[in-house]
Amino acid sequence: MNVYLITVVVYLVLMAFIGIYFAKKSVKTDEDFIVAGRQLPLPVLIGTLLATFVGSGTVVGGASFIYQYGPFAAIFNLSGSVIGMMILYFIASKIRSGGNYTVPQMMEKRFGLVTRLISSIFILLAYIGITAYQFTGGAYVLQLTTDISLETGSIIMCVLVIFLTVTGGLFSVAYTDAISALLIVGGFLLGLPFVLIAVDGFEGLSLSLPDHALTWNGGLSIPQLIGYFLPLFLLVLGDQNMYQRFSAAKNPDIARRSTVGFIFANALVIVLTILLATAAIVLFPNIDPDAAILKIAVDGVPLGVGLIILSASVAFLITTGTSYLLSASGNLVYDLIQRFSKTDIPQERLLWLNRVTVVVLGIFAYILGRFFPTVLEIQMYSYTMYGAAITPAILATVLWKRATTAGILTSIVVGGVATMYWELILNRPFDWNSVLFALPLSILSLIIVSLFTKNKNTVHVDRL
Question: Which of 16, 122, 236, 312 could disulfide-link 389, Cβ–Cβ 3.0 to 4.6 Å?
Answer without folding.
Answer: 122
